[in-house]
Amino acid sequence: MLIRRAADIRPSEITPESVFHGRRALLRAAGFAGAAALLAPALRADEIPGRYRRLGTLRSSPLSVRETPNRFEDITTYNNFYEFGLDKGDPAANSARFRPRPWTVTVEGEAEVVGRYTYEDIIRPHPLEERISRLRCVEAWSMVVPWVGFPLRDLLKRFRPTSKARFVAFETVVRPEEMPGQKGRTLDWPYVEGLTIAEAMHPLALMVVGVYGVELPAQNGAPLRLVVPWKYGFKSIKSIVRIRFMETRPPTTWSLAAPDEYGFYANVNPRVDHPRWSQATERRIGSALFSPKQPTLPFNGYAAQVAALYEGLDLVRNF
Amino acid sequence: MPTLRQVRLIGKPVVFTAAMLPLAGLVAGAAGVPAFQLGANPVETIQDTTGIWALRLLLLTLTMTPLGWLTGRSWPLQFRRMLGLFAFAYAALHFTNYLLLDRALDAAEILADIGKRPYVTIGVIALTLLLALAATSTAAARRRLGRRWQALHRLVYAIAILACWHFWWQVKKDVTEPAVYASILGVLLAVRLGRHARLRGYRL
Description:
heterodimer, A: 319 residues, alpha+beta, Sulfite Oxidase, Chain A, domain 2, 5-stranded mixed β-sheet, 9 helices, 13 strands, 20% helix, B: 204 residues, mainly alpha, globular
């Protein structure tokens, strides 16, 4: 399969002629920018509390986007994880009792290799990479996150899915004692999600175990979560305990809760509005108070890599 | 029981200061005071805070008259105008934040929102009506309008219903919170209906 990268030169990257001819002035300005850049990484490392275990050496992924990641604090205090409560601050506030170890993942369905695996069994064979991805929430806000993980397809291939495996279903853990949001019936627990096998085998689909070089905090889906960056955030299921290869399309939590508002595909699409709000623009978390929203890109900016998955599919009807 | 003088010299300044506190918190947050941080999404924090306080103050305004009946005192009535004007002020900030920070004054997008999204439409209608009430809240306007003033200001019931509806419709999943506010409004309206019926001699 040919993996296409985004076109290397975007129109936004082309230097305007006037700037090109003003190179000396630009170099002077770059001197100041360079000094600022030297300060930035130090602030970044300082921000991560010592209680998070570092994940060792990571290779940096060629699939990373060239955008500045959000602050660790924003990524870990502004979360949608209804298992811990409805407000954005609830997952960070209510997850202290959550125990990400020991952890077991059940693999079942249309595959030659099935069974129960510990977290360590799952991750041991895979070299970890740091991959900076865009995250676009269906609520029209976005972040840039330096995830740590490995391609989902490398994991799935180990189970040798059969030719009947047309979909992959995922399930989040149910532990009401540790996840207070599960004591109510906000959603039907367990949270379930799914992908077509082609989506799951796409190199952009990432199995994630960490963020900013440390193990995933509970509020971000410890210890094992999915990141499917060209889809709305709710597809990127957290705290996974079950992976099932299926012949038929699996049910997914949000499309069960509100079928007219959330579909199975949930690809980021500025042309298909949510019934109650526009998806044309997004607010980048961490941007200045007076900065306008930015335009949302088809497939969250990953169209060059993933649009081929949906050739011939009506993306308005299959939202 | 408080005298009119006490209401004017103590009650009103206290209520005025209290009603300013949510706004003061937002201003402190925007200015970077650590204890009042606006969080990862400040625009959303401002939107939600001004919106919920507009609704709370509106319901509080509607509580004053029944409170007067309940206590047999007239002092609660003295606070209606101030609370109502604060409800309007927070609603206006709520809308301004939406126009300015959320939508960056993009006229096309704003008009599309108002036309296409029912909860925005409802909110704009409620605010427009509230503006009419705020504009006619002075003693002079009251004298000028005479009997029509009362009729005009009965719109506050419709505004409160629209405000609860606006809140209900923009929630993604869990409607518990809007349901609580709608129930409070339900009680406040039912109390009025009950009294109205009783005064007219209907049997309930």
